[in-house]
Amino acid sequence: MPNAPHTASRSAQPLEGRRRLVLGLLAAGSLPLLQGCFPVVATGVGASAAMISDRRTSGAYVEDEGIEWKVASRIRERFGDSAHINVTSYNRNVLLTGEAPNETVRSELERIVAGVEHVRGVINEVVVGPNSSLTARGNDALITSNVKARFVDAQRFSPHNVKVVTEANVVFLLGIVTRAEADAAAEVARTSKAVRKVVRVFEYISDEEARRLDNPTGARK
């Protein structure tokens, strides 16, 4: 069972179940999510392949999309442009990054996230200060792209298993990984251009569990 940033558990789902869900997405073109309040539109073979290779269950994968949309919407309704908040949900744990105008707003963000269905935990990395500039956000996007590309070049772990978020030159790494995979990902990110700091937001699993999740039919590479 993964060791989450906060105490959490996850259940295994057979690969066949994931494939059935993917086929349903491709056939229907969209999927009602969270009791019909938010439609997730299938984006084609690329997104479907990513879901199959992901270590999250297909249910968690889809719920993460809904959680991000709901949290971002509620924050936007509450604070408008007075705060710049990025929301990233991975296996139902929500990472908040960005800037809040004061500590009161920063604290209220956690209450907003906690009120969203299916959220298991909140990692609040929002800083108090003025909103970042568009130039700074563009630089963060470039850092994220570079780190992802270096993950592929390094060939030390599957890049599908590590999500990268960058804020103010700080790289946050999320995923369901082994300790060795986490160390490799952190090392690659740390040595990437313009990265100021690396923060791990991983759920840790054993090598045996990783093999089981990567090969749910029992096949071994």
Short description:
This is Transporter. The protein has 221 residues and is α/β, with parallel strands linked by helices.
Terminal Cα separation, in Å? 21 Å
Uncertain runs with pLDDT below 50, 5 residues or more? 6-46
Percent helix? 40-55%
Describe the main β-sheet briefly.
4 strands, mixed
Number of helices: 7
- Provide the gyration radius in Å: 18 Å
Order of helices and strands: HEEHHEEHEEHEEHEH
Number of domains: 1
Which class best fits the helix and strand makeup? alpha/beta
Q: How many distinct beta strands?
A: 9
* β-strand amount: 15-25%
Shape: globular
Name the average pLDDT: 84
Task: Tell me what the structure shows.
The protein is of the alpha/beta class. The chain has one domain. The protein has helices spanning 15-28, 45-53, 58-79, 103-114, 134-154, 179-190, 207-214; strands at 30-33, 38-41, 84-90, 93-100, 121-124, 127-128, 163-167, 170-177, 197-204. Strands 3, 4, 5 and 6 form a four-stranded mixed β-sheet that branches. It has a three-stranded mixed β-sheet with strand order 7-8-9. Strands 1-2 form a two-stranded antiparallel ribbon. α1 runs antiparallel to α2 (45-53) and α3 (58-79) packs antiparallel against α4. The longest helix has 22 residues, at 58-79.
